[in-house]
Structures are given as C-alpha cells and as structure tokens.
Amino acid sequence: MEGEGMPRYVLLVDWTEKGVQAVDRTVERLEQGAEVGESYGCKLEHVWWTQGDHDMVSVVQAPDEEAMVAYTLAISRLGNLRTKTLRAWNGDEMRAILSRLPSTD
Fold first, then answer.
1. Residue 85: which of 49, 56, 105 has the closest Cα?
2. CB under 8 Å to 16, separation ≥6 — which residues?
3. 5-45: pLDDT as tens digits
4. DSSP string of 10-56, one letter each residue
5. Distances in Å between the alpha carbon of 27 and those of 61, 75, 78?
6. Helices 65-76 and 26-39, interaxial angle, to 10°?
7. CATH code reported for the domain at 3-98
8. Where are the domains of the chain?
9. Stretch (H or E) spanning 1
10. What Å distances lie between residue 12 and 5, 50, 103, 104, CA to CA?
11. How far apart are CA 16 and CA 104, in angstroms?
12. What does R_g of the chain's alpha carbons equal in angstroms?
C-alpha cells in the first residue's frame, strides 16, 4: 500500500519533562522523527503544535499497524514525548465499512 491507500493515524503528542527542557529543538526533533518514520515506511502527512490538552497533533500514514507501532515506540523511547494513537478513516473508507453492516429494513 502507498500514499492514499495507506491507513492514517492521528497522534496526540505530549512532551515529557525532557522534551520541554529542549523545546527550542522541537522543529529539529520533528524532522528527525519524520526520517525515523520513513525507515518504517511511515509518512508524516501533517503536524501542528497546539495549545491545550496536547502539545502537538500529527497525521501519519503507515503501511500497516505493526509499522505504526514500531515507529511510535522508536520515537517514544528517545524520551522527549509520549503519544496517544488513533486510527483514522476518510469518507470513502467509512462508506466501505458501513457497507458491511446488515440492513436495518
């Protein structure tokens, strides 16, 4: 699977104390993290630094769930962040899922 056909994941990112202490390097760390993701076949599609409950929100495409787990473990073990990962579906993917439901007639 490539590009549009790859599953998408939303990452809610929270900096650790170590990550906050090196906040001036956050853009550089993101670029390095994107390179790590590419080594697992993952593509960083969008990223935003946010104010509120989470420090960053990212959208990542991954070839499969195992690649996504490996990627998030690899970046998490560096100690700068913790993530919550959500699988995301677009409208066409949701239509396909809904087509599998039995009729309610």
1. 56
2. 79, 80, 81, 82
3. 899 999 999 999 999 999 999 999 999 999 999 999 999 99
4. EEEEEE-HHHHHTGGGHHHHHHHHHHHHHHTT-EEEEEEE-SSS-SE
5. 20, 14, 15
6. 140
7. 3.30.70.920
8. 3-98
9. none
10. 22, 10, 35, 36
11. 48
12. 16
Residue 14: both structure tokens together: 């929270």
C-alpha pair distances (Å), 13 with each of 25, 61, 97: 15, 16, 28
Query: Does the structure show a pLDDT above 80 at 2?
Result: no
- Alpha carbon distance, N-terminus to C-terminus of the chain: 36
For strand 8-15 and strand 43-49, is the pairing parallel, antiparallel, or unpaired? unpaired
CA dihedral 55, 80, 69, 48 (to 10 degrees): 30
Q: What pTM does this model have?
A: 0.88
* Token pair of 69 as six digits: 């787990």
